[in-house]
Amino acid sequence: MRPSTTTQRPSLGVGIIVRRADGAILCGKRKGGHAPFWSIPGGHVEAGESFEAAAKRELQEETSLSVPEVKVIGLTNNLKTFALEGIHSVSVCVLADYTGGEVINTEPDKCDGWEWFLPTDLPQPHFDASEQSIHCLLSGNFYQPTA
C-alpha cells in the first residue's frame, strides 16, 4: 500500500445510485487525473450538510436531475483509491428512484456523459466507491469490509 502523501484524515463523500423502473442505474465516465473511471453521481459532503442534501445537490449539479427522496443504503471505505492515488475517502451511498427528467451532462469538463447500465453489468474501469456502493445495493449489505 502506498503511504498517504498528506497527514490529513479521510475525506467524506457521497454517491447516489439513481435507479430506473427497469433496474438500470445511472453512471458517468469521469475525466481528469483523479479516478478517471465510470461512476455513479457523487462528490464531497460540505460542512453542515446532511448526506441526503449532499446527494441531491451533487445529482443536480452533475446531471440536472432532481429527486424527491433518497435513502442511505451503504458506507464504503475506499482503500483501492488510497492504494492507487494516496487519496483516502469514506463515502455514504444513497439510493433514489428515477422520477423522470432529461439527464444533462452539466459538467462536461468533469464527465464525458451519463448512461444507464444494469448494476450487474457495469462499465469498466469503475471507481472504487461506486463499485462498492452498487455492491451494497445488490447484496443488501450496508458495508462490505475491504482487505
Automatic annotation (TrEMBL):
Matching Pfam families: NUDIX (PF00293)
Keyword terms, alphabetized: Hydrolase
Cited Gene3D superfamilies: Nucleoside Triphosphate Pyrophosphohydrolase
GO molecular function: hydrolase activity
Domain (Nudix hydrolase) ranges: 7-142
SUPFAM superfamilies: Nudix
Top-level taxon of the source organism: Bacteria
Position of the signal peptide: none
Keyword field contains Hydrolase: yes
Protein's UniProt keywords contain Acetylation: no
Listed InterPro entries: Nudix_hydrolase (IPR020476), NUDIX_hydrolase-like_dom_sf (IPR015797), NUDIX_hydrolase_dom (IPR000086)
Classification via PANTHER family: 8-OXO-DGTP DIPHOSPHATES NUDT15 (PTHR16099), NUCLEOTIDE TRIPHOSPHATE DIPHOSPHATASE NUDT15 (PTHR16099:SF5)
Name listed for the protein in its UniProt record: NUDIX domain-containing protein
